[in-house]
Amino acid sequence: EKEKTEMHDSKEDPRMFQKGRPEYRSLSYDKFESVDTLTLEEGDSILHSVAICKGRQSPGTLTGYFCKLSRLPAEQHTALVSEPRFNTLCRYAVKNIRLFSTSDLIDILKACIRLVVPPTHPLLNACENEFCRRVWDMNLDQLLLVADCWRCLERSVPSYLSILFSYANMHWKDLTLPQFVQLVYIIGEGRRSPADLTQKVESMILKYLDAFTLEEVGAICLGLFKSLSGISDHVMRKIADRVSLQMEDMSTYALVNVLKMLRYTRMDHLPLLKELGKVIPAQIPTINIQGIMHITLTCSSLHYFDEGIMAAVAMSLPPKVTYCRSKDAAKFLWSFGCLDYEPPNEEEFYSSLIEQMHRKLHEFRKFPEHLLTALLGLAFVKRFPEELIDYALRDEFVQKTRGSKYELKKDLFTLSKSVEIECPSYQGSRLPPQLYQEMLEMVLNFAEQEIYVRPEIVEATSLLESVLGGPEYVKNHMILPHTRSSDLEVHLAMDGQPIPFNLKDPIADKKLKDIGVSLTDDLMTQLITGRCNSQSPMDVENEARTPGQEGGEEAQTPRAGDRAALSGGALITDARLQVEPKSGRCLEALTLNQQPRRVKLAIQVSNRNHYCYCSKRLLGLHCLKRRQLQQLGYVVVELPFWEWFPLLKRTRLEKLSYLHYKVFDPAL
C-alpha cells in the first residue's frame, strides 16, 4: 500500500481531471474502459483469415480485426505485435489507409494503444500522415481525441499538433469548457506553447474560471507549466485567489500543479501561501515524495518560510527517503539550505538524504546539476560531505557538467571556493586554476554590468567616499566573487581612523603622497632588492604610518613574497616618496602588509532578494557569505534594505549621518 502511494504515474496522473465530466469520453482515450476478452483460439482464427484472404477484406473488416485482437489477454500482446501475420494485417491497413473512414482510423489507434504498439511502428507512421491530411475534414472532438491517442502511444507528433492548434485558433469561439481544458492538456503534453494562442488561452481561463472543477484548474496549470507558457500576473493571481479559498477541497495533485505555476511565474500570493501553511502540514504524511518535494521547492523558490510546513516535511521524509530520486533529494537539500532552516530532527534528516545521494550516485552522472544543487544546499547550512564533494570536483564530473543544459560553472565555483574557506583539512579533488580564472572572469563581468551599477550601491559608495575622505577609503567590489554579490570594503585603524587602501594605478601618485613615507637608504634598498639593510620590518612599518596613525597599534610582519614584489616599481625622489607601480603589487605591500592592525569592514547593501519573503530572515547563500567573510577576518556591517532604501529619498545630510553611524559606532 505504501509502495502504491509513493508511485507517481506520469502518464495517468495528469489525466485525472477527465473523470470529472462525461464530455471527456468523446475527447480522450479511456484506459479503464472494460472490454470482453478474446480467447486465443479466436485470435488465431482472425490471423488465419488475414493470411488466406491476402488483403481482399474491406477497411471495415480490417478495423474489426484490429479491435478484436486488441482484446486478447494482456500477456499475449507482445507476442502478437511481433507475429508475422499481425504485421501482414498492418501492411494491408497501410496499403489501404485512405479507404478507411475517420472513425475506423481512430478505432485502429485505440487498438494500438491496448496492444502497446511501439511508437515508431510503420502503421502509426501511415496513420499520422493520414490524420494530418484529414484535419480540416474532422471536427474538434475527433482532433482532440486523436491527439490524446498519440499521447497514450507516447508518439511525438509535432506536425499534427501544429495543424490542430491552427484549427483551434480558427474555431476558438466555438470551444466548450471541456474542449478547452483538453486542449491545454494536449499543449502541455506536447511541451510547446503556440504563441498565437497565449492571449486567447488567458481570456478563456478568465471566462470559465468559476466553472472549472478544482481538478481542471490543476490540469490547466500543469499544461501551462509543462509547455513553459507565459501567463500574466493578473490571470495567475485570479487562479490563486480561487485556490486559496478552496484549498481544503482540492486534491494534492491538483494543488501541486497550481504551486508549480505559481513558482514558474514567481507569484507572491500571500493569501494562498498562508492557507498552504494551515492546510498542508497535516496532509504531508499522506502525500507522495514528489508531491512533498514540489511543495517544499515552491516555498524555497518564492523565498517563503513557513516553519510548520518545513518541520512537517523534515519529520516525514526520513522514513520515505528511499523513494527519493536524485532530483528529489537535491531539491529537498536546496530548499532547506536556501531558507536556512535546520529542523528539530536535523541530524536524522540530513544523514538520511546524504545516504540517499550515495545510493543515487549513478543518477547524478546523467543529471550533474542535481548533485551540485544538493551540495550547495548543504554548504549553505555548513555541511560538507567530503566524499561527494571530491566526486563533484573531479575532472570527469566537471566534464559532464559541460554537457548539461544548465550553466553550472557558477555552482562549481561557489562550491569549490566554499570548501577552500570552510574545510581547510579537505584533501580531495579541486578545480584546475584555469577553470577558476574562467569562472572568476565570468562572475566579474556580470558584476560590472549588473551589480556594481545598482543605484542603491552606487549611492552608498559615493556617500561613503564623502564620509571617509575619498575613493581611496572605500572599495565597491566582490570580496568573495563566488557568492555573487558585492561588498563595500572599508578599513579602520584600531583608533577608528579610516585607512586608505583602494589604491589603483591611475591615482597611485595621489595615494602615496597621502601616506608620506620618508625616503631612506634602507627603504630604497628594500624597494629595489626586497631586503632591508639595517631595519626590521617593524621599523619600516613604523616609518610608513600615515598621519593620524601614531600610537601603540600592533604591527603585522609583511610576507617575504610581498616584500620581494616591491622591486617592480619606478621611483621618483621628492621630499615625499612617490611610487608609480607597474602592477600595483608594491603599492599593496606598502599600504596593506606594512600597516598596523586594522578592522576590515565588509559593508552589505542588502535588498529584498537576500531575505525570505516578508521577513528579516536571511537566505542561505547570504548566510554562507557572511559566515565566510567572518572566517576571513572581516566585520560584516549591513545597510538593510528596510533602512537604506527609504533613506535614498531623504536628504544627503541624513544619508551621510546614517553611514557615519554605521561605520564608526563601536557598538556595531
TrEMBL record:
<dbReference type="GO" id="GO:0005759">
    <property type="term" value="C:mitochondrial matrix"/>
</dbReference>
<keyword id="KW-0808">Transferase</keyword>
<feature type="region of interest" description="Disordered">
    <location>
        <begin position="530"/>
        <end position="563"/>
    </location>
</feature>
<dbReference type="GO" id="GO:0000963">
    <property type="term" value="P:mitochondrial RNA processing"/>
</dbReference>
<dbReference type="GO" id="GO:0003723">
    <property type="term" value="F:RNA binding"/>
</dbReference>
<dbReference type="InterPro" id="IPR013584">
    <property type="entry name" value="RAP"/>
</dbReference>
<dbReference type="Pfam" id="PF08368">
    <property type="entry name" value="FAST_2"/>
</dbReference>
<dbReference type="GO" id="GO:0035770">
    <property type="term" value="C:ribonucleoprotein granule"/>
</dbReference>
<keyword id="KW-0418">Kinase</keyword>
<dbReference type="GO" id="GO:0044528">
    <property type="term" value="P:regulation of mitochondrial mRNA stability"/>
</dbReference>
<keyword id="KW-0496">Mitochondrion</keyword>
<dbReference type="InterPro" id="IPR013579">
    <property type="entry name" value="FAST_2"/>
</dbReference>
<feature type="domain" description="RAP">
    <location>
        <begin position="601"/>
        <end position="661"/>
    </location>
</feature>
<dbReference type="GO" id="GO:0016301">
    <property type="term" value="F:kinase activity"/>
</dbReference>
<protein>
    <submittedName>
        <fullName>FAST kinase domain-containing protein 5</fullName>
    </submittedName>
</protein>
<dbReference type="Pfam" id="PF06743">
    <property type="entry name" value="FAST_1"/>
</dbReference>
<dbReference type="InterPro" id="IPR010622">
    <property type="entry name" value="FAST_Leu-rich"/>
</dbReference>
<dbReference type="Pfam" id="PF08373">
    <property type="entry name" value="RAP"/>
</dbReference>
<dbReference type="InterPro" id="IPR050870">
    <property type="entry name" value="FAST_kinase"/>
</dbReference>
